[in-house]
Amino acid sequence: MPAVTPNPSSQSDAGRPLTRRTSWAEAAAAADAAKPAARVPAPNRAPASPAVPVKPAAEDTITSVPRTAETPAAEAEVPPASIAAPAETPAFRRIRPTTADVIAESPMPDFISSPGLFVKEQKPRPKGGVRGAIFNMTGGAWNLGPGPKQRQDEDLGRRISRQLQGSYNTAVLSLKGGIGKTSTTVGVGLTLAEYRGDAPCAIDANPDSGDLVERALGEGIYQQSSPRTITDLLRNIESVDSLTALARYMHHAGRLHLIAGEQDPEVSDSLTAEEYLRIRKLISAYYSVALTDCGTGVTHNAMSGILQSADNLVIAAGYAVSGAKRARSTLQWLASHGYEDLARNAIVVITDKDEVSSRVDKDAIEDHLAGICRELIAVPHDRGVADGDLVTLDVLKPETRRAYKEIAAAIVDGYR
Question: Could you tell me the sign of the dihedral formed by the alpha carbons of 213, 217, 223, 227, in that order?
C-alpha cells in the first residue's frame, strides 16, 4: 500500500499566506492585530450647543407620519430634538492627581535656614576633662558634649570673632607705669589676631620710648629688622596709598600688625594730636580693629587726639592700693573732661604683676573699681607677663590666656 503523506496545511487554511513567527514579540503583535478594536462608549453628556433648535413645550410632541409609497421608512418617524444624540467627547477623564502635581503643589523646604531637616545634628566634640577622655577611649561612640568651661570658651571666641561694619579703636592707658599696660596690649592684640578673620593693628603712641614692638617680637628680632617707627610713617604718609605700601612701615607678630613708637627721646614726645589723627585715619582704611598703647598719663600731646578717636578704653591697674586709686582718678578725670561715655564704658584690667602679698585685700580693690566701669577683669600672676620681656600666648598660663580672651571679647562687645 502506498504511503500517504499528510498535508501540513488543513483545508481550512487553504488560500491564506503562511505566517512565520520567529519570536514571541512578533506573535504577540500578530495576536493583537487580529483582535477587533474595542469601542469605548461615549459618556452620556449633552452637547454644548444642540444641532436642532428646541421647540416650546406645547409643540414638543411626537407625531407619526403615515407611511406611503413615496415616504421612505427612515422618514416615517422623526425623533424629537430633545433626545438628539450628543456629540462625541473624550472617553478618558483624570480624577487622581499625578506625582508631578503633588510635587509641584508641595511647599519647597528651605535648605539654607533649616539644614537640620536633612542632616542630623551632631554634638560638638569635648576637649579635655572627663568628657574628652570618655570620647577618646570610646572612639567617639560616647559623646557627652562639651562641658561648661568649653562652652564658655567657645562663646568668648564667637564674641571676639564677630563681624564688624567699619573701623574701631581701643585706647589702653594708665596713670602709673609698670602695671601691665603694654603687656595687656600685646596679649589682647595676639588674642584678637588668633580669633578674628581680619588682622588687628596695634599702634605704639607712648611718648616715653615705648616698647610695644619689643614685647611682641622680642628685643633681638626687632633690632635685626628695619626699625621703622611712627615718625617714619608720618614723614612719608602722603605716599602711602595701599596696604602694601603701609606694610613697609609695620612689624608683624604673627597676624598682629604693629607700628613701632619713636625710640629717640628727643623726638618721642613730638607726636601731636593732629599727627595721631592722620595715622588713625590711614589705619581705619585697612583695619577694622586697632589698639593704641597710650603710655603713662592722659595729658601728653597726642592724648586729645587718641581720646577723640577712641571707641572704648582699657584702664590698666594693679592690686596695689596706689594702683587702684590711680585707676579711679583716671576715670574721674575722663568723666569731668568731656569723656563721660568713655569712662562709663571703660574696661578696667587689674594685673597681678608683682604677686602681691596676702595682706592686700584683692576683693576690696575689685569692689572699689567695679562700680565705676562697664567691666572689671583680673589677670593672674604669670611669669610670661611679669618678666617684662617677650609676650607669647604659647607660654602663658591657661588662666592668663582666658583673661585676655575675656578682655578681647569685652572690647569687641563695646563696638556698636
Answer: negative
What's the pTM value of the predicted model, to 2 decimals? Answer: 0.68
Q: pLDDT (tens digit, 9 = 90+) per residue, 279-307? A: 999 999 999 999 999 978 787 888 999 99
Distance CA 147, CA 291 (A): 33
Condensed to tens digits (0 to 9), the pLDDT of residues 110-169 reads 655 665 566 666 677 777 777 777 777 887 777 777 778 878 888 999 999 999 999 999
C-alpha count within 13 angstroms, C-beta hemisphere, residue 87: 7
What nine digits make up the cell of 353? 604683676
- Phi first, then psi, for residue 69 (nearest 5°) are -70, -30
Q: Which residue has the cell 607677663?
A: 385
* Alpha-carbon span 314 to 320, nearest angstrom: 18
Do the Cβ atoms of 348 and 369 come closer than 8 Å? yes
If you count them, how many residues does the chain have?
A: 416
For residue 18, the number of C-alpha atoms closer than 13 Å in the C-beta half-sphere is 5
